[in-house]
Write a structure and sequence with these properties.
Layout: H1 2-13, H2 35-39, E1 69-76, E2 82-92, E3 95-105, E4 108-112, E5 118-122, E6 124-136, E7 141-154, E8 158-172, E9 178-187, E10 191-193, E11 196-198, E12 203-211, E13 215-216, H3 217-220, E14 226-240, E15 246-257, E16 262-270, E17 278-286, E18 289-297, E19 304-312
Antiparallel strand pairs: 1-2, 1-19, 2-3, 3-6, 4-5, 6-7, 7-8, 8-9, 9-12, 10-11, 12-14, 13-14, 14-15, 15-16, 16-17, 17-18, 18-19
Length: 313
Amino acid sequence: MRRAALAAALLLCGVGVQAEPGRTAAVFVRRAMGARAASMGGASAALLDPGPDAPQHNPAGLARLSRPAFSSSYLNGFGGVNHGHLAYAHPLPFGTLAAGLLYFNAGKLELNLANGQRGTVTSEEDSAWTLSWGLPLAWGLHAGATYRYLRLELAETAKATSHQGDAGLLWKTPVPGLSVGAAYQYYGRDIVFEEAGDPPPKTLRLGAALRLPDLDVKKLDPAADLEAFDLTLAGDVVKTVFEDASPRAGLELGMTPAFMTRIALRFGWVFKSFSEGMTFGAGFKTGKLRFDYGYGSTREMRGLQNITLGYEF
């Protein structure tokens, strides 16, 4: 029964006998967990104000953090699939150190075997532990790296581990408000279950972001409830091994009302992706507490809902 469970899980979870075009292992690590990034179509490789979950898209963004911060994210995915993510970042005299944990559960799998036996197992349960470092350099340049340890389990039968590495750069250009970023992620050896294996989803991200100068609303209308108004435009191109490049675009409209630190509305679009398309969301920050929500959907599949709770110390 255990081998039958393994065979069924290999089929359903997309772990083939050998690597084929569009077939990689541990694809759960690619899903945008932070609600802010998810609601902007995942276009966050070049953002200058990321949170402690920055290593998910570009570890160099950690170098921009000035205060210790914690974030907890939850993603309700297709067909009851669930993700969870925890991250903590702590600035030090020489850069910023961050640790994270990504959890994935694909739900239950019911088996009806030829000998008449029946059973229920967890189809897939995975975790990824990360340790990241972001370092500010000269001339507005920042560098970052991540070490990732993965543990994967299929049908409560087959287990595999993987060691991966990421590297990234982020540049605050001399052009006011303009930044560019690049990251190479999930580099490592093939992930092997018994004799079946696939490569990790090695991914290259290239991005640019433009934050327009903040508008002082009080100068335009002294009676307005808003203190300031800001706008950020972002775009990424994401290329995963064996797959076509996927452009992403995002927009964030920020407002600073008199009664709260900041409110943001966000929109995005993921191009050339079967499982992603239009995205949108919102967030607010009051004092040290931050809450973000993101939603994404396509015509072919159900929606994704992200929730992130963050705190700055």
